[in-house]
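Re: beginner question about structure tokens

> Can someone show what the tokenized structure looks like for a real chain? I only ever see the sequence side.

Sure, here's an example I had lying around. Input first:
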Amino acid sequence: MSVRVLHGDCLELLPTLKDLDACICDPPYHLTSIVKRFSNATEDDVYRNAELRKTFNQGASPFARQAKGFMGKQWDGGDIAFNVETWRLVYDALKPGAHLVAFGGTRTFHRMACAIEDAGFEIRDCLCWLYGTGFPKSHDISKAIDKHGGQQIAWFGPWFRKWREERGITQKQVAALFPSKSGNLTGCVANWELGFNLPTPEQFNAIRDAYGLPFATLEAAEREVLETRRDSGGRNVPILNADGARNYNITAPTTPEALKWQGWGTALKPAFEPIILARKPLSEGTVAANVLAHGTGAINIDACRIEADDAPEGRTRHGGGRAFAEGVCGFKQDAITTAPAGRWPANVCHDGSDEVEQAFAAFGEKGGGFGVRGSDAGNTMYGNGLGLNRPTTGQTVGFGDTGTASRFFYSAKASKADRAGSKHPTVKPQSLMRWLCRLVTPPGGTILDCFAGSGSTGAAAMREGFNAVLIEREAEYVADIQRRIEQVEAEATTIITTAQMDMFA
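And the corresponding structure tokens:
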């Protein structure tokens, strides 16, 4: 097995690659709003104006290249994952019938899916990775109203625009009072005047002092602190106690307007990530012929079946996703070469958290008991023979287990070991990436990841015995990839050394 790491822009490097067997990647989700990413470019400019859309999508605009997205990262700022040309270059680098696996964000993956389809791929499925560790990134409306003193100051934006225009003061002049960390102008003044938000008391005071506003204060309403709770680590502005504990305050609305909108927010808790499964069209007419010609076109069902421990008489038995522990995922390597057993892999997987298990439990439990097959009827997602080779009439079938619908593929979110020292914010767990590698890659095949990040796909490919070609633009993450590859190589050396020692024991 080999891993090639290409440092550079994927739009420039992809044309140099040909005849790869699969693509598994985690592209930028572009979760930040289009207005914030492109500042003075509107959504109409980018998505509905054909000429401007072409400019932005091709990355020809220096402005688009400098835009910032998730957590202020420049690599998330443009629109490369929504660009048809990006996926056409991936398409050209793959063999006929090769599969593409691409992670996406719940709010934006539809644009990526459309771009993938427009590039020529066939959308085959959309996998769902459920997890219970997401934190709602919601804006508390009641607190926001109190922060700006209540509804009585909502007039500020329209009033300020009229006031400054009468005096010949430009937006840029006012915005110069609030430069970004890089020293560039921000769009804060435009946002106030459009009614998107209001200045903080500190910003108001700066404008007042610089331009002499006719009133003195714009104070936030003080909220009563009801209690202080320990923070689990997801809050943006924790209060640090003397002992270093992270806490946050539970407060009560102060103004009548805030009381009216208490409990209202702007977002649900994130609990899943969609994964697009697409395929380059076949060149041989049928999947069977394409597999024989190129080794691509099908997915490896048996390598990804869901099997658990303590199975009686070779059959699967478990009570839920918790049976799949620590990345083992209920998969037994020798099941590939012996009699395949276990549930058919579904387009749903989850992290095995208590929260997800409880959600499945709400639908009740169902057994997958044994029985004598008399017809094709009776199969369910819970068992009763689903996932086994089709038995003949009169044959005893089933899993003999009991549990909820959580009996899918289990993969916890990225652990410290999965991160391998990387600070990348979107590292994916090795168990999930290895499962995806097995699913779509033929034996000895080469996997492409054109958004390599910390190298999760490359490490998973190596551990599963596949080759990989990784493309990464950011130098910081290229160093992470190199370190991760060395780590996996060291693991392989350790395994070989141990095996050799056992031979002479």
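Each token stands for a local structural state, so reading them left to right follows the chain. The longest helix spans residues 475-503.
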